[in-house]
Amino acid sequence: MLNLVLFGPPGAGKGTQAIYLARTFNLVHLSTGDLLRQEITAKTDLGRMADEIISKGELVPDSIVISMIEAKLNTPKTTVGFIFDGFPRTVPQAKALDELLQKHNSKVSVMLCLEVDKLELIGRLLKRGLTSGRCDDADAATIENRINVYNEKTAPLINYYAEQGKYHQIQGIGEIDEIAARLKEAVLKL
Ligand code: C5P
Ligand code: MG
């Protein structure tokens, strides 16, 4: 199986590029952010809890997002592979993903990290906030916190995957189709 972890700070373009990569390589797209937002829309207990955390720009507890991914991996819709978008967000989540994939006799093929500088990220998120309806895109303080949380809790995953020889940097600035072509090229070289 081809299992891609699409990685990068908030606003790096993970969601946009994951759709493209899923189509190109016929992968199942798993976005924990989208799954959490579906829970919020459906007004479930989990959704109410997630809403509070997400609107502050914080992270939902590992056990919850891991269970969500586990449920998706146990629903066999693909033999080709998955693209993980916005997951893992912490080292424990990455370890859990490795264990879950191992149970399915599979593993993470590569971690593709979209490189975008902080000023560009803030600009993109503020712009997205004008139309996305996402409470976490709405104000500069929440955006700043999301980037800080990324640097503190999520960026350590770069080392986690680098140690396994799976970390690939991709320049995340430019036209959407240019960036998509860079990602495709990196996957084809695997
Ligand atoms: O991945 P995305 O940017 O769509 O996630 C939106 C929000 O969902 C994050 O800022 C975070 O609050 C929450 N989230 C999380 N844990 C994940 C994925 C998303 O807490 N693994
Ligand atoms: Mg996203």
Short description:
This protein has helices at residues 14-25, 32-41, 45-56, 62-73, 91-103, 118-132, 140-154, 157-162, 176-188, and strands spanning 4-7, 28-31, 82-85, 110-115, 167-171. The longest helix is centred in the middle third of the chain and has 15 residues, at 118-132.
| Overall pLDDT level | 96
Helix content: 55-70%
- What is the straight-line distance between the termini? 12 Å
Cross-sheet strand order for the largest sheet? 2-3-1-4-5
How many individual helices? Answer: 9
Number of strands: 5
Order of helices and strands: EHEHHHEHEHHHEH
Structure, explained:
- 57% of the residues lie in helices and 12% in strands.
- The chain is of the alpha/beta class and 190 residues long.
- It has a five-stranded parallel sheet.
- Magnesium ion (MG) binds next to helix 1.
SSE order and pairing:
Elements: E1 4-7, H1 14-25, E2 28-31, H2 32-41, H3 45-56, H4 62-73, E3 82-85, H5 91-103, E4 110-115, H6 118-132, H7 140-154, H8 157-162, E5 167-171, H9 176-188
Parallel strand pairs: 1-3, 1-4, 2-3, 4-5
Helix pairs in contact: 1-9, 2-3, 4-5, 6-7
The protein binds cytidine-5'-monophosphate and magnesium ion (MG).
Which labels suit this protein?
57% helix; five-stranded parallel sheet; single chain; 190 residues; alpha/beta; binds cytidine-5'-monophosphate; binds magnesium ion; 9 helices
